[in-house]
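Hi support team,

I've been running sequence recovery on a batch of backbones for a student project. Most finish fine, but this one hangs at about 90% for roughly twenty minutes before it completes. I'm not sure whether the input is malformed or the queue is just slow. I've pasted the structure tokens below so you can try to reproduce it. Let me know if you need the job ID as well.

Thanks,
M.K.
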């Protein structure tokens, strides 16, 4: 079966090359027909799991489409070549080709397709190179935002923010979450704004910036419904505990369902939050017996002082 598909692919390659040849009666290569044959060859090689050959056929198809000024089809072929590289576990090279395809989609005036290609590239590289994935998700968000598709934009920004938190790039994460929050406010999704405020505060406290964390809460009072919400109450308790170096209070807030059931990356920030200096523990109340013993010791001390109250004889 594989050998049959390989031979089929080679036949299509031969036909494509024939279409590209010029002669006395044929002055111009037939790029359109050649591209079609290269595309068929790529499919045959892919079915035979000859991914390297399939990638080469896709690249030839893309070049033929470019020569024919068919940018959209060229971009699709580059994207397919990238997917063949993915099958070969050559992820950085795959992402490079998919990025090239997305730029061509933009040039062709199809931003939605460009954004989908960039998002696909981000997913491919996320576990190997999170920094590159952040860049790709932010690019995708920008494309959607330019098209006024804010819901899609904010979803991609959220992915970028979580990756930044995971990589402990807190300064960048704080800015990214603020951008998310602004968009959610614009589309009037206020409950999600509250959750983004919690995420912001946790990030700022991990940056050891209490002032910025407090400012986030203060600014959020202007968001409809925030003041008096359980999110607001919890954040006020968290900031109070952090300011007073009360680790028990901070841990109690961060272990509440409101914090524990956030996105995993933010829940982990809450569980690992330590107040400055390691915090102080609340003193356990003295038992009645200890209190009475203390009172007796004080009385005895007073009696000893009375013996010498008049001075030495």
């Amino acid at each position: 079966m594989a050998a049959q598909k390989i031979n089929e692919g080679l036949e299509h390659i031969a036909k494509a090359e024939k279409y590209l040849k010029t002669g006395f009666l044929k002055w111009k290569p037939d790029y359109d027909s050649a591209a079609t044959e290269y595309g068929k060859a790529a499919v045959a090689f892919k079915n035979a799991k000859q991914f390297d050959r399939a990638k080469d056929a896709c690249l030839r198809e893309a070049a033929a489409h470019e020569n024919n000024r068919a940018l959209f089809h060229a971009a699709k072929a580059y994207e397919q070549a990238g997917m063949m590289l993915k099958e070969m576990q050559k992820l950085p090279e795959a992402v490079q080709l998919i990025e090239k395809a997305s730029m061509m989609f933009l040039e062709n005036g199809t931003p939605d397709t460009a954004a989908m290609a960039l998002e696909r590239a981000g997913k491919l590289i996320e576990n190997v190179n999170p920094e590159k994935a952040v860049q790709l998700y932010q690019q995708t968000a920008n494309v959607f935002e330019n098209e006024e598709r804010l819901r899609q934009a904010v979803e991609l920004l959220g992915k970028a923010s979580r990756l930044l938190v995971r990589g402990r790039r807190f300064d960048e994460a704080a800015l990214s979450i603020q951008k998310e929050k602004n968009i959610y406010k614009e589309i009037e999704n206020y409950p999600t704004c509250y959750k983004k405020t919690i995420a912001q505060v946790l990030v700022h406290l991990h940056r050891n910036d209490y002032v910025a964390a407090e400012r986030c809460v203060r600014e959020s009072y202007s968001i409809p419904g925030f003041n008096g919400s359980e999110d607001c109450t919890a954040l006020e308790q968290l900031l109070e505990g952090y300011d007073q170096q009360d680790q028990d209070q901070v841990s109690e807030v961060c272990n509440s369902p409101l914090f524990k059931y956030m996105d995993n990356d933010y829940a982990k920030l809450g569980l690992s939050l330590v107040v400055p200096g390691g915090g102080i523990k609340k003193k356990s109340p003295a038992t009645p017996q200890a209190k009475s013993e203390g009172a007796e010791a004080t009385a005895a001390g007073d009696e000893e002082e009375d013996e010498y109250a008049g001075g030495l004889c």
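--
Follow-up from support: It reproduced on our side and the slowdown came from queue contention, not your input. The radius of gyration is 33 Å. No action needed from you.
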